[in-house]
Fold each of these.
Amino acid sequence: MHTVDTPGRITASPTSAPDAPLLPVLKPDEKHAMLRKMVLIRRFEEKSEQAYQKQQIRGFCHVYTGQEAIAVGTESVINRDDAVITAYRDHGHALARGMCPKACMAELLGKATGCSKGKGGSMHFFDKKKHFYGGHGIVGGQTPLGLGIAFAQKYTNSNRLTLCYLGDGAINQGVFHESLNIAALWKIPVIYIIENNLYAMGTSVARSSAGDPLVKRADGYDMAGIVANGMDIDDVRIKTAEAVNLARTESLPSLMEIRAYRYRGHSMTDPRKYRTREEEEQQRARDPIEIYKQRLLDENVINEKDYEDMEAGVASEVQEAYDFAVNSPDPEIEEVFDDIFAPETQIDEIERRPKWSYGD
Amino acid sequence: MHTVDTPGRITASPTSAPDAPLLPVLKPDEKHAMLRKMVLIRRFEEKSEQAYQKQQIRGFCHVYTGQEAIAVGTESVINRDDAVITAYRDHGHALARGMCPKACMAELLGKATGCSKGKGGSMHFFDKKKHFYGGHGIVGGQTPLGLGIAFAQKYTNSNRLTLCYLGDGAINQGVFHESLNIAALWKIPVIYIIENNLYAMGTSVARSSAGDPLVKRADGYDMAGIVANGMDIDDVRIKTAEAVNLARTESLPSLMEIRAYRYRGHSMTDPRKYRTREEEEQQRARDPIEIYKQRLLDENVINEKDYEDMEAGVASEVQEAYDFAVNSPDPEIEEVFDDIFAPETQIDEIERRPKWSYGD
Amino acid sequence: MPIISLRTALNQAIAEEMERDENVFLLGEEVAEYNGAYKVSEGLLDKFGPKRVIDTPISEGAFTGLAVGAATYGLRPIVEYMTWSFSLVAFDQIINNAGQVRYMAGGQFEVPLVLRGNSGGGLRVGATHSHTPENWYANIPALTVITPAFPDDAKGLLKSAIRSNNPIIFIENEILYNYKDEVPEGEHLTPIGKARIRREGKDITFIANSASTHRALEAAETLAKSGIDAEVVDLRTIKPLDFDLIAESVRRTNHVVIVEENKPFAGWGAQVAYMIQRHLFDELDAPVIRVASLDAPQPYNAKLEDYLLPSADRVVKAAKEVLA
Amino acid sequence: MPIISLRTALNQAIAEEMERDENVFLLGEEVAEYNGAYKVSEGLLDKFGPKRVIDTPISEGAFTGLAVGAATYGLRPIVEYMTWSFSLVAFDQIINNAGQVRYMAGGQFEVPLVLRGNSGGGLRVGATHSHTPENWYANIPALTVITPAFPDDAKGLLKSAIRSNNPIIFIENEILYNYKDEVPEGEHLTPIGKARIRREGKDITFIANSASTHRALEAAETLAKSGIDAEVVDLRTIKPLDFDLIAESVRRTNHVVIVEENKPFAGWGAQVAYMIQRHLFDELDAPVIRVASLDAPQPYNAKLEDYLLPSADRVVKAAKEVLA
Ligand SMILES: Cc1ncc(C[n+]2csc(CCOP(=O)(O)OP(=O)(O)O)c2C)c(N)n1
Ligand SMILES: Cc1ncc(C[n+]2csc(CCOP(=O)(O)OP(=O)(O)O)c2C)c(N)n1
Ligand SMILES: [Mg+2]
Ligand SMILES: [Mg+2]
């Protein structure tokens, strides 16, 4: 069910007409909620950048600005108890999953109240209760993990599925291909979503990957390849629903390529010399939030006032998250030795003998 | 130039009509020489198995019996100064390359006169003068090496190319896919040849790899995928010539899948319980040596007498190789420390201070 | 007590734990239909079926990561590497995923995972196939490294490893698979992180693991003839290191030889030697000597490989030097 | 002498060697058009063009193997890992191909190859991005491991590494890239395998490398105030180890503290400590103490990471204990 004809041209696949039965029509409040989530991510990331400039956030920080429709759109067609796993550009997916902005911002600031207790940082958000499996810093490293989570979902007959996101640059890590093969061979309900934002750091897709569209790589494994327009959340939803249907009804994996644009630098220290400001302007002209906002205005789902209220609500929510993070304590020094080993329940605790130190 | 239409069905690609201009017509003595090479490999491997039974060969020993037409056929359409690299099932490729049977048998017996001085063994044949880059034991591990050799051939404007062989099971090592992408992206003159002998140890292709034919994996990289019948050396030659032409004239890589059958067990200790004797009989019925021998008889290139003389000549050549190996000395114990470091030529030798031993 | 091979002991351990807990499953190359390249998983496919005994493609990176992911979800995977040398293509998955995920998540996830297979030299399989990776993995804070030398420990430790809620590196040695010895029947669990004195002695302490424990025992017998009484400590678990037992023994003998198959530079024995001089400086009458593999790649030729591997002879020689 | 940063020193070394030999080329992620993620390759694309300064896909395994293959053919590749932590996905290619190919071929091929990049902690990038792999690679017989601490050594050693006919693991440290110091102009080669005394002292010997050399120097200054005179040996090359110089120093001071950023279990310092007690047993007045990273994964939180990393304070404390 390869949905691309001329390589590179994005086309709707047969089953993805707007009235696709796979996709229940959204109620107004659901549409409103999706728009709000996108706005929340956008504002959260703006705050992240400010906190980074103040050096409250350290190390690497990769913001999701411009790609909001991907995380929110894909999330909107799966269930709460399905699993999500992604790479280091994970703030958007975490918020789309419904993780607490306070805990997320606190993690960025390395606080004990963070979603990973301040031990993971920007690249390593986790939330077991929300079935959010991270937040992974090694490019492509999460792809076999997503396979394993979906394997376990099938092993336990849960009829759940896993969304595993990766970047366009990550498709060139070998372990991803090993994972595609196993997913197809064993019929594992994992949906791999390539977020094609046109760049891997300073390297454009054309300079890093042979073959266009990227989903063509699914063909070799007789796996479904689906391309979606990541600037249009409804297209994201329609195309993702196809993949979800395959996973849910036939336990089949899919490879999706959702095209968007990374508005900001790769990380906070990237001057973006490898692309023109004109290119950026053109891309921003098809902003996913603006497009969807306009659609909801046209549909009279919201009016300008609703939108302003929404923006105001989001602004204070993000400010609260930031204040919460700033006012939260660092972990205690001694906690450096916590969370290494899980308590044993089926055998006696394993003696670690700290008194005989391995080093001073 | 994907040459497979219905997945699985082997078809001739447009350019590969028997009279393909790419392929000069062979002279009788050349045909004779190809047949002899296949016979030499067959007999060499029989001798290897005997030597293994006598425990003169130790460790792993993987024989090439049944796949002779692949190594000999592909070799016959490249030049002496092109490069060849393969996996651990390397005896056939080494002999096809023209490596000395004596040095090869001596290597199997771990002798100082071996092609790797007895340090490599069956899996690790090497011959720099013959541009034979091994003999590699880690599945898939040779695929980026082949890429690098071809990269260097292009870097030095040599107009040479590299044949890199791998097994059907090896295609599921991620580094192979990373290599395919780079080969296509940078136009590296490497020809990857999947020797599809239907099994990876006890695992059939269908149980290890999604997608059929295996060369479909080349599509994702916009790389040529070519399927050949490894039981017919002429088909191997015709199809390989296409890939060679692409590499030579446009510096383009290709992925070939040449289908044959591994007559013997994976290694010397494999009872082959995973397949029936009937299947083996059927496969052996289309023996590459028998087919080509018959063709040469029909073409009156050889007569039965010629063939008997050839067999006799091969038999004594193999016996000589065996006697040479048996009568060759083991390396001296002290040589264990030789061949670790290349002598320095651009800087002073690096002091290693053996007197301060790292361990006793 | 029944006498069984170390291979059978491992097989029993896996079978018993799979009986006990249906979240336990085995995956790896040739573990199912082929019954295991080294027959450790013999009969398990028949017993438990293809859902729980799974043949994989030759994709160590992906199936290791798969196991880590499944473990975080709540399953208890056992991964078999045909040999540990092939774990090198999965190194990132083992170290960065199995080894870091729990910590990076602030302890939210458990990773009940056993990675196992054989390792080591003496098989004439050359430089790429003869690695002994225990030192690399023991360097990772969250990984526990087990290297049994006898059937009873192999069974008891593997059962404990499968029941552990943490990622375990379980390194076997092919040359010991046919080693037969008594193994207690029924429920037999061996504690992880405890060494064992395999031979008592008063003159010198040999500290070893896996196949090297047998080299040490052989050396001890030889030395006995010349009146030297060597104690042999089989570490069984490399990390966490049972320094309580090491200290107790060294305090009695005041002389130490470490026997390991690691290549010497920064092998596990260097760590043990460091700790002995660090924590027991005044107890030592002579330097600790390590008998390890020589610092060269593994040659195929048998004579060369035997020369490279630690041997009982070299242990005897080292012991005499330490006691001189 | 001009004063330049360690980053510039590395850049000059690469540029000068590429000038000298057109078989030398650089490849890695973002090394060309982006001028290097850490700007070590700044300007090289403009100088040498895309044939010799090459941006790669994010495929460390393949481009490492590519470099090994190209080296066996006769080129002299320099591979940049954006950080050494990312070399884990290329571990098999580094160990089994770069590290074993020459030996397995009986010495027929040379592998003139430099694998380089930064490593280490203190950057707040967490558990997967802060590895210090020198101990793993030094465990491989055929690999040479270099870890410079100062600009002059960085330049001189990298030039020597590029000229070597053997595979070199060249491990930099990002927190030193901006460190400025004098670097001789023109042809400046530093011998591989020779340590250097960075501070002379008579009371105790500190043995360190890379960023830890600076920690040791800081500790030495602090101790000087309390009248303790510490000698600081910067190993520069981890393997081969310059034990001649270590022995010479220890014979004078009889006291040793090793400072390393490796996680402690089987870090390179354990090897050095082993050798000191093995070869200089009677020269030691006190146990060798290693100040290393704590045995925990790297936390993101800055306070926790600083607590985990070896620090000058901990070196001072250890020195006082050794001298007590
Ligand atoms: C194995 C590995 N190599 C290199 C890196 C450094 N790195 C981090 S992000 C990145 C670019 C990834 O780009 P892409 O996959 O397109 O994701 P995006 O940043 O666009 O979301 C690189 C090279 C890494 N983290 N892991
Ligand atoms: C990374 C790695 N994993 C596993 C092995 C063990 N092994 C050696 S050969 C082999 C099967 C390979 O089959 P295939 O690629 O089809 O080649 P063939 O033996 O058929 O020539 C396996 C699993 C290995 N050598 N390297
Ligand atoms: Mg991208
Ligand atoms: Mg095969």
Amino acid sequence: GSGGGSGSDTDSLVISANAIAGGKNEQEAKWIEEWVIPNFVDQKKEQDDVDVSVSFDASGVDDEQYKTKLALDLQGGSGPDIMTLDGIWIGEFAQAGYIKPLTEVVTQADFWEGWDQIPEAVQKLGSFENERYGIPAGTDGRVLYYNKDLFEQAGLDREWQPAGWDELVEAAEALGGIDGVTPVQLNAGTAMGEATTMQGFLPLLAGAGEHIWDKGKWRGESDAVTETLGLYEKIFADGLGDPLLQQEAQGRDKSFEQFADGRIGILLEGDYFWRSVVHPELGIAPMEDRDEVVGYAKIPAIEPGKGIHGQDFASMSGGSARVVNPETDNPELAFELLTFMNSDEALKALLEGEARITARTDTNADVLKDDPMLTFVADEVLPITAYRPGLAEYTRVSTLLQEATASVVSGSSAEDVAASYREKLEGVVGGAGNISN
Amino acid sequence: MAAITMDRLTKVYPGGVRALDEIDLTVEDGEFFALLGPSGCGKTTLLRTIAGLEESSGGSLRIGDVDVTRTPPGSRDVAMVFQDYALFPHMTVAENVAYPLRIKKVARGKRTEKAAATAGELGLADYLERRPGQLSGGQQQRVALARAMACHPRVFLFDEPLSNLDARMRLEARTFLKRLQRELGVTTVFVTHDQAEALALADRIAVMESGRIRQLGTPSEVFRRPANTFVASFIGSTPMNLLDGVVRSRGIEVGGELLPTPPEPAGRLVDGEKVVYGIRPEYLVHSPTAVPGSLTGEVRVVENLGHAQLVTLEGPAGFVQLVVDEDTPVALGDRGFAVPRQDRALVYRDGELVTAGADPTGLTAGARATGAT
Amino acid sequence: MAAITMDRLTKVYPGGVRALDEIDLTVEDGEFFALLGPSGCGKTTLLRTIAGLEESSGGSLRIGDVDVTRTPPGSRDVAMVFQDYALFPHMTVAENVAYPLRIKKVARGKRTEKAAATAGELGLADYLERRPGQLSGGQQQRVALARAMACHPRVFLFDEPLSNLDARMRLEARTFLKRLQRELGVTTVFVTHDQAEALALADRIAVMESGRIRQLGTPSEVFRRPANTFVASFIGSTPMNLLDGVVRSRGIEVGGELLPTPPEPAGRLVDGEKVVYGIRPEYLVHSPTAVPGSLTGEVRVVENLGHAQLVTLEGPAGFVQLVVDEDTPVALGDRGFAVPRQDRALVYRDGELVTAGADPTGLTAGARATGAT
Amino acid sequence: MTPPPDHAAVPSASDAAPVAVATAPAGPPPSDTEHRRREAQRAAGREGARRTVAQIGFYTFVSLVLAFFSLPLLWLAVAPFDANPGLSASLPEFTLQNFQVLWDNPYAMRSLGNSVILAGGTGLLVVTFAALAAYALSRVRLPGRDMLLYVLLLLSSIVTGTAAMVPLFNLATELRLIDSQLGVILVLSGGLLPSAIFILKDFMDGTPRSYEESARVFGASPFQIMRDIVVPVVRPGLATIGVWSVAQVWGNFLIPFLLLRSPDQYPAAVVMYTFYTEGGQANLALISTFSLLYSVPVILMFLFVSSRYGFRFHGGIKR
Amino acid sequence: MNGSKGRPLAGAPAGRTGGSDAAGLGRRRAAGFVAPAMLLIVAFLLFPALWTVYLGLTDYQLTGFAAANPQVVGLENYDRALGDDRFSNSLVLTLQFVLGSAVLGQAVLGFAIAWLMRNRVGALRRTVEALVLLAWILPSSVITFLWIALLDRDGGTLNALLNTPGTAWLLEYPMASIIVFNIWKGAAFSMMLYAAALGNVPPSHLETARLAGAGTFQQLRDVVFPRIKGHVLTNLLLISLWTFNDFTPFLLTAGGPENRTEIMPVFIYRIALESGELGFGAAISVLMLLINLVIALVYMRLLRQRKDASA
Ligand SMILES: Nc1ncnc2c1ncn2[C@@H]1O[C@H](COP(=O)(O)OP(=O)(O)OP(=O)(O)O)[C@@H](O)[C@H]1O
Ligand SMILES: Nc1ncnc2c1ncn2[C@@H]1O[C@H](COP(=O)(O)OP(=O)(O)OP(=O)(O)O)[C@@H](O)[C@H]1O
Ligand SMILES: [Mg+2]
Ligand SMILES: [Mg+2]
């Protein structure tokens, strides 16, 4: 290995991920320790008769702390050979020179057969400025969940796919007629944190036709931004959403509970919601009749064809990618291990039969086949999805967006908020030169 | 009016130490009364109980005509001077002296005036603006006195006020204190473990041991006729010689020598009984040559007392100390003879003085009598 | 061998205080030497300079034949007993006593044995395993002594070792110390501010004032013939009467009375010159009736000294104190007369004793002479 | 409420003429005695009432303090034994399962050992070095000594913050102290030393000089004096600083996390963070149990030190 | 070690250092005693601290372009901080926090306990002291859980006790909660310090005041406080600094809600760790140091006044 490495006599590699046995992300930690490492070592021995040693630096802490530690390692020219990074860190790490495009590190990078199994859109997760930096490990997608029973009660169809924001608002207004029901939960405010941006503002903005970061510039007071904030204004000013819920620290958990209780009509969330929140057995707000009651629909563009890339629908995705440290002593071997970890076989070993969206189409086809919802996300959403910019400034921009939605929710007009957002943005991204309208 | 009357006053500390054991005692109005005794005998406890700083566990206490057993210290109208003076270091002399008046809410102008007057009486007029740290020990002591005097208490309580002064200053302070008390006429209880101080200052002395009073009397009573061997060995600037003896028909045999029986216990002794023969070093007359009826021994130590010498003889009776005139030559190793002054010798049986009549402790008759006045 | 010789020894503290001012002094081998003087006169400084705890600013110091002016304290072969004893609170008595031996790298077994022996000599055998906090003051003092003795130093230095004891224990300790030093024969310098202690213990005394020696001599020299009024007022358990007088042809006029001129200065006085007439209270004889050539006054204070009384008269000569026999009745307010013992009266001119010849301070001739031996 | 004791029995004598001399013995009128007696009785009555109120007040206060300081601890006593601990200290469904889980966890038990190494090492280093330095600073007058101490005290506040992690990390990298427990110990010691010296110096200032001088006259070297006399005498202070620095290290997460690589070396503070789910939710069963295990060593240490050496401060800036 | 050689040499400088140097240490040896501590301090405190000061003058970030090419931007970070609402917000909050929890809370509670326990011995005193000290030595991550459990809105012990179900203390009274929390956590130090200080107040002084008729308040004002002023100031200095730099409340409230508990160390943590703006974070650390300095100077000024007064 390089920094974390041991002696350089035999070929040795170090893997690092924010996972630890007996703790956070235990599944991944166990998989690396008990499946990846022994199998890879055996395979090298059998195929090439090479002794390799692979070790795993486990940790189980907040993502920020894990990121900080990696960054400190990398800026000092050391660090693990293979590391798991959140997709949105790729850009900032690349800009800092901590990681390099795969082709610069490994000559064979483009010739991995696995690339074909990963959709173009998903590959963005491990890419920055059209260069591949790593292999995406898994992803997700955002949709609109709705309560079919409530729809029926409001006189709407049980099967629903809005084609534009108007239809969304219409449905909400219809739901507004039911007592004790909040028609729409659209995450807003700072208490929700990144959920406001990822499960709220950004997918809508994509529907309005814009990325928050595009062609090297951040979006300021653009029409799309104003329109997106306008939707917030519409929903919260007209009583279609519950402003108080947006301020509580446990607001997000509460919204989950309320949805499960049948007190929220429509909710924008990722597939995590389906898998882990309302899952009849494993969920934290389980719904026994999930499969009958919970409907899901793609997030519509403001009007058909007005979304990004002229799409009718939009979504946002996140996930992590595994990256090779450019400073590694054994780039080829590291890449071999990396591809090994992202093989169909390996991913299936990781999931142990659980349904979850991976980056690979072939894997997804197998593991998702019993879950119509995840299949829906894999088939319908992932092709139209977008990813957040992996830039250092992103977290601060995200905070500004959260604050902006909070202002709208508490009664300011979308135009005013957009203007003041732009003003603050200048301070955060280093001047007007980095902002486009 | 401001006599202090203690009736079976008892103090048991939480740990179980019986520091005062049913003390019956009356300190007369205007009297200068000394409490004397070894360390830990309860002197400070008695003083603090009078002041109200310790709550008594039993018995009653009156100051003047008023039962103050349960009165808080601030309302007993007593003033106390502590061994360390307890001057507040952050206040000037004037502020220190005025402090009790300030607590009693005397107006500023009036109390400044009063404090200055009191301090002036004690010769502190020039130091009013100094802080205690800038004063000598003797001056500090006077500030403490002035503070105690400032609110005209009915009783003064002094806890070893002189023991922090150096030997020279102690002598001066002692004379000063005595004169001051005479002039003020305030009832005063004075604690000390220095018997010379007690003898020099007090109208009456109580000698205490483990929470009890062992003798009560005027200084000369206590000095001349200690009621028991405890008091005998405690009082006197040089300790009394207490020698084991056996009563014989013609006298008392001490260390093989037959000494004449002192007149007082003469008829009260039984032949052959064991007694203790007590004689102060001052009442032994030195003789370089053998004298019948004298104690003898080899000169072991000679200590200069200034105008006299304290000579320690080691002989068949053990160590015997005697005071010898400064002009008498005494050399180490010499043989010396000590002739007792018969009228000053005392005889103790079972530790108690053998007397002609009245209780020498001054406790039963004495204390009761004074208590009744 | 272990005499201590100081030659123009000077100590100036960083702040500029001249604590020792060119001290010339020789302490003889085996001598018990007392340093006496008021607070702040430099006694402790002198002792500490001998011990090496302070570095002298000038002059030289020899112990025995060796110049130790620059030797660190540990190599001077002296032992010091501090006023607070400085017993190590975390060590047992045995460990405390053995500590100097431990520093000198004596093997454990041997030093335990030696410490036990030394402690035994001082009657501490039963306390070897106790810690200092569990001992009485007197026992602590003996532990400190034992520790000082344990390594057989050539010089003992004692800084007020008795001042922490209560009055009674002080007397016993003093006798004990004296006997011990006699037996060991080690050169000893003893600091005290209690003149009675110095008189009782010392072979010779140096009286200091502001960094200088004002008189050097045996206790009786210092007591009987104080070289100056400073020493006169400092020495004696009751201060000497120092009365302003004027020389007349037939005597010295003090407070209107003509007192006979003492024999010694007789021929050396000039008519009409102002002098101070000095007489100790012990050398004034009391008379209730008028006697020619006596001092008179009204009895103001009577202090009981045990076997005698200290009477203060206030008269034309100011306050006069005299010692009166215990049997003589003296009442406050009485008129009293005090007749000086002529042979004990002293005359001071400009603060210095008027003498027949030799320097009474014992400084020039005496110190030089002893210094030369 | 009791009336303020200030009014208690102002003796009438204090208002009398300021001539105490000679006037006192002349008996005052009988009404004065009566007045005094009444005052004394009233004062005694008030004193009784005041005392009762004071007693009640005292025990109320003590109960409140006891409640305040023990209430939060309740959870620690209950939750570890609860099969389904929530954030309430309810009656548990008793189980020791959580302990079993932790016992089987590959890092949990070992991390306690690591914590002991880090905390013990740092404590030892801080106590030793701070004692030496505080002693020298207390005994020898160096120009600007007090200023130096204050400045270091202030600087220690920067370094214990997060902003200094880059310098610390790079320094450790340069010194090859990454992934070494020694590195963690050294870095932590550097941050703790100024406060330790500051507090210990007060203790050193309080030891009587005569102890040292007397040892010095016997020929003891400064080091021997320090070892034989000063250290035993200021032992409560050293114990205090020792416990303090151990407690500081025991709870420190950031430095060991940043400087250590292999999970085998992680102290408990770092391992404690791993008992969270993927979604960031705390696994209360494990966390409460681990908290208990994690607290036991410091509590034991505290009990040991306080019974053995006393645990107190001398204190403050004197003179 | 005790050989005669070298001794006179070593002894000579020893004496010159004056009366306070009881062990005859001498400056050279004193320097040797100080050296190990100084070495560690210089390496792991002074050096990183200076480096941090330097970082504060750059736009250095943990990631992004600024990580690859940090530029010296002079006082820009300071400019930005001083114009930043979040900074002034956190400054005000920190001052509230320090004043409320340290100066008023810990110091007063610690003093009250020390004062009331001063004459007590036995089980009661030991229990109280042990509990208070326990709060002080338990690791922060543990005690924050204890407090989260105590203050929890559903089923928290406090709500059960006060019969106020559903009160979200950490949301509704966030500042008060962390202040009370910090009082709980840190009162031990003040208690110990004051207990030692009260041991230095001669009983005779208190008793003199009592004899004069002074009540408790007057005794405190006239006797105790003037006597322990030095301890009070040492205590305030240390606990203020410690509280100022205390990061623990983050574990309880994460700076929220709405930044209402974003005290300075939390602010720095978020800037440095969550946003990775190390240059800016360093600048704020330096600002924090300067504020600490001002506080220390204020205290030392009071201290000096005391010195003058008692001279
Ligand atoms: N607060 C206390 N608690 C328990 N015991 C005490 C207390 N104060 C004093 N004692 C004990 O009560 C006894 C009498 O003590 P006191 O202080 O009255 O003696 P003393 O005669 O003044 O002695 P000294 O001459 O040493 O001052 C002693 O045995 C002492 O140990
Ligand atoms: N370390 C010091 N620095 C400056 N001056 C000092 C120091 N130690 C003592 N002095 C001064 O030197 C003088 C002599 O002090 P020393 O302690 O020798 O007196 P002392 O005769 O022992 O007095 P006491 O009887 O009070 O013990 C005093 O004026 C004192 O203030
Ligand atoms: Mg006493
Ligand atoms: Mg001295």
